[in-house]
Amino acid sequence: MELIGLIALLSAVTTAVAFSVDRQQYNYDCETRSGNFEGDIMLTERQQETVISGRDPVVTEVDKWTNNLVPFVIEADSLTLEYAKLIREAMAKIEDVSTIRFVPKKQERDYLVISGESTGCWSTLGRNRGLNRMNISPSECMFEGAIVHQLFHVLGLGHVTNQQDRDHYLDINWDHVRPEHARSLQIHGGRVLPNHGIPFDEESIMHFGSKHFSRDGSDTIVLKNKEHTIGQREAMSLKDIRKLNIMYPCGYC
């Protein structure tokens, strides 16, 4: 087994408990109310046009973070040292299983600013020129798994729930979906947000919750395998880790 794969396997097995969040504690509404693309992704104008056309990937090679380095700033005005520590710990979980490195911003022109506005959990997608944004509301989504979910968006990864092979694994209860969010549950073509050759993953941290975009509190997303649940914010799955390492195979090496 290649070194990265071995590290990923060992880390996923030994750190799953560290991400433990009772699924009943996490309110997925914090990822839907902002009105962004699929609830929690803030697209640029160019990315919006790309999604509409469906002809090209939203995130290409030039939209990945250079040398696998993500310069960041944590806003002290909205996030305490305790919250900043938790965010850094979530970053470390990603660093432990990949060649991605989050580094304090110095003079870099492209960088990530992490804020703690009172409501909402959202982020930009991939590396955009200049300022990139991510918000983690301390009262709603200050959990390691929720932070990792947003950091995956920052790295350029989308939601697995919209993957093109999803209908073999789940059903959408369209009658319970808020009309304004119906588009958020449409399947992506293989080019818009590629799955990097990784089959559908029920355990991915990049799923919506089972009641995402619900108009009445009923389930909107139901797995065909009734023994499983969807939408955890506890730990990266092995397929999540594999996908990340396919997208970012190496940094300086």
Q: Number of helical runs?
A: 5
The count of β-strands is 8
**How much is the average pLDDT?**
88
Class from helix and strand fractions: alpha/beta
What does this structure look like?
- This protein is of the alpha/beta class and 253 residues long.
- 24% of the residues lie in helices and 13% in strands.
- It has five helices and eight strands; from the N terminus they run H-E-H-E-H-E-E-E-E-H-E-E-H.
- Helix 3 crosses helix 4.
- The longest helix has 16 residues.
- It starts with a helix and ends in a 6-residue tail after the last helix.
- It has a six-stranded mixed β-sheet with strand order 1-5-6-4-2-3, covered by helices on one side.
- This is Metalloendopeptidase.
- Pfam families: Astacin.
- It comes from Aedes albopictus (Asian tiger mosquito).
- Its EC number is 3.4.24.-.
